[in-house]
Amino acid sequence: MIDLGKTMNTIGFTTSIPVEIILAAGKTPVDLNNIFITSDLAGQWVDKAEEAGYPRNSCGWIKGLYTACLQTEPEAVIAVMQGDCSNTQALMETMQLRGITIFPFAYPYDRSADMLKHEIEKLMRIFNVGWAEVEKVRQDLLPVRQLCQELDRLSWQENRLTSWENHYYLVSSSDFNGDPQKYTEELKNFFAGVKKRKPFKQKVRLAYIGVPPIFTDLYQFIESLDARVVYNEIQRQFSMPFDCQNLVDQYQQYTYPYGAYARLEDIKEQIRLRQVDGIIHYTQTFCFRQIEDIIFREKLDLPILTMEGDKPGQVDARSKMRIEAFINMLKY
Ligand code: SF4
């Protein structure tokens, strides 16, 4: 986890952006989502945002991001205005009100390479870095991205990682916990232990699609029912597991910002490859992405459980019952 005391020179962001630019500028990337959800005070941070005036019927992640940003006091925040969240504009404006410097970034909905290049170059000008420096960082990060892919493969092909471990290491690759070198060492040490493990033998193999869960014990609960998540869709996307030629290509292949249909292609391919029995589609209360559930239900051929989380904390009793019934249905 990133040291909250070390805020000088840190650049926060609201969802994955071309992190290579921040690193090329010699600054520390901070994914505010990771700061929020790994904080022991995550629940209180949501309350704080409500006290500041955030409506009760706005998403828990947005409220958490707002307080996480004020707690972290980054030098600036890159806010993804298109390709992530319909609430980001207001989030950005309220952060601005509190004196935070904001730089907007937009993923073009049509996945246009020219538009994406334009946005990337705009960010490069802000951080005063050129293509040569950014490309060097991209190349330097390739080994750690490959390590992430290998870790993911060990999850589904050799069954050696728990659902949570797969989630944790992949979700952390959005900012490499602020320090790619340290994160690489952490991964390498983890690998050494994992290789010696006996494979897990849970009966049910699950895919998890949708934004990362706000629940703290979801993966552990799933495993208590003799099931394991062998595919964490968005978390895997954060690690950029693609063969690509350059930075524009990399962020064009990244599916998350380009809507449900871009994500579907990847989901279909991975659930087939990983021999998944069923899908958990996690949705966040008050999130516009809940509507996309219609598309996933119609276009994916496996049984789907749509579940909803609101505030940080343990899985609620009703969701537990639904998960249990879903896994039992897949078992028998
Ligand atoms: S869960 Fe939905 S509403 Fe909440 S921050 Fe993410 S995209 Fe926005």
Tally of alpha and pi helices: 15
The molecules bound to the chains, other than polymers, are:
iron/sulfur cluster
Summarize the biggest pleated sheet.
4 strands, parallel
Low-confidence parts: 1-6
Judging from the principal axes of the Cα atoms, what is the shape?
A: globular
Number of strands: 8
Mean pLDDT: 96
Descriptive account of the structure:
This protein has 332 residues and is an alpha/beta fold. The strands form two sheets. Strands 2-1-3-4 form a four-stranded parallel sheet, with helices on both faces. The chain has a four-stranded parallel sheet with strand order 6-5-7-8, with helices on both faces. It has helices at residues 19-24, 32-38, 42-51, 60-72, 88-97, 113-126, 131-156, 163-171, 180-195, 218-223, 233-238, 247-253, 259-273, 293-299, 317-331, and strands spanning 10-13, 28-31, 76-82, 102-106, 204-209, 227-232, 278-284, 304-309. It is globular, with a radius of gyration of 19 Å.
